[in-house]
Amino acid sequence: MSYCSTAYPKEPTAPTVQTTEIPGPESQKQLAQLSEKFDTRPCYFMCDYEKSNGNYIVDADGNTFLDVYAQIASIALGYNNPDLIKAAQSPEMIRALVDRPALGNFPGKDFDSILAKVLKSAPKGQTHVWSAQSGADANEQAFKAAFVYYRAKERGGFSVDHSNEELETVMENQAPGAPELSVLSFKKAFHGRLFASGSVTCSKPVHKLDFPAFNWPHAEYPYYQYPLDKHEEENKKEDDRCLAIVENLIKTWPAKVAALIIEPVQSEGGDNHASPYFLQSLRDLTTKHNVVYIVDEVQTGVGATGKMWCHEYANITPPPDLVTFSKKFQSAGYWFNDKNFIPQKAYSVFNTWCGNPSAMIIGGTIGEVIQKEDLLTQVNRVGDYLMDKLSKLAEKYPKYLQRLRGKATFIAFDLESGKQRDTLLATLKKNGCNVGGCAEKSVRLRPTLTFEEKHADIFIAALEKSLASL
């Protein structure tokens, strides 16, 4: 039996939609009540997580949806997973929740074993981890680590102490203590909604409106023609065009570029994929120009692309300096391999909690289940199956299903307009499937790692029915 069958014997066999509107009347009632104390405008519907199971999410009206969005790509194994429930009931979890250690100062005697389990899921070539609270926090922490590392090299070595001038000027937010440095990112990127992460985000205005931003450069991310095997020459030229822009920005930007951050697939920005050639060429450029190379695997990490970490498709050599993570790992932070990214001064990269041990317990368990159940093999198999079905639909509905692209079950396609895309997503809900969009007109599929062929068949049937009604 498959892991899904054994873990979710009571998983529904099909969606059921009982209300004519979504959100339905009970969801609307509860949302109205919640809105008195919480901003509910982005809410899809009110969820009943007690009744949600496996790949199905249930709302307050009793509607049962096949969830092909999975909490914005952050549910790895499905709802009410028994392995995670067992981990949640462990003595280690009770201590982590009740006593919530300030890990930087007061780690528990069980923390080393918790961390060892987490590190079993590290990307190839990465040996260390620093933990954070969220994906945006992970990126911000990575930026700080990159700046400290970069400045140590500029001063002449990791054992060279700061000058009195640096200690004095930093208290006035002035150079050299607060140096003029920048992080290079890409147009259409999404790395978070905090201050530094907001400055490297460039997907939608609403993500960063009305708060100050750093004057940091945005290069162009490759935009490929599909199918890839029929446009190799054009896409190689696109890679080289974008690489030339990256190198020019590194050479000419007024604030020295200390770090570069990239998503292997720009998720919020429209599921734009970077080729292995592009990712390796960035490694070559960052090495050449002494720039810290950061790969953001917040949405692409933990199996959905068919590898535990998407950038492993590129076999980047030497490995990226820092790899940030969150979402499906249910924990957050960054992986690294060079001990010099541990700052010279204790407390330089620090906060009260230094991550969350309860989240790490869940993350470590997710990694164990993925390996034990060989879920990456399943994700690749189901991804091929789903892509084949979608390719046939694209032939039948070329107007509505354009630029089909993806790795394993991490799949997207475009419609002709944002209005058309939004209509499709609403219709899919009425046909029993919860699906998300990205960028201006893209649909993105983000199922769990336990998504099987039987789920793919249900989704394809709902999609074809929805497309036929457009």
From TrEMBL:
This is 4-aminobutyrate aminotransferase. Belongs to the class-III pyridoxal-phosphate-dependent aminotransferase family. It comes from the Eukaryota. One of its GO terms (biological process) is gamma-aminobutyric acid catabolic process. It comes from Hanseniaspora osmophila. It catalyses: 4-aminobutanoate + 2-oxoglutarate = succinate semialdehyde + L-glutamate. Residues 1-26 are annotated as: Disordered. CDD domains: OAT_like. The keyword Transferase applies. One of its GO terms (molecular function) is 4-aminobutyrate:2-oxoglutarate transaminase activity. GO terms for cellular component: mitochondrion. Residues 15-26 have a biased composition (Polar residues). It is an enzyme of class 2 (transferase). The keyword Transferase applies. Keywords: Aminotransferase, Pyridoxal phosphate, Transferase. It holds the Pfam family Aminotran_3. Its EC number is 2.6.1.19. NCBIfam families: GABAtrns_euk. Its cofactor is pyridoxal 5'-phosphate.
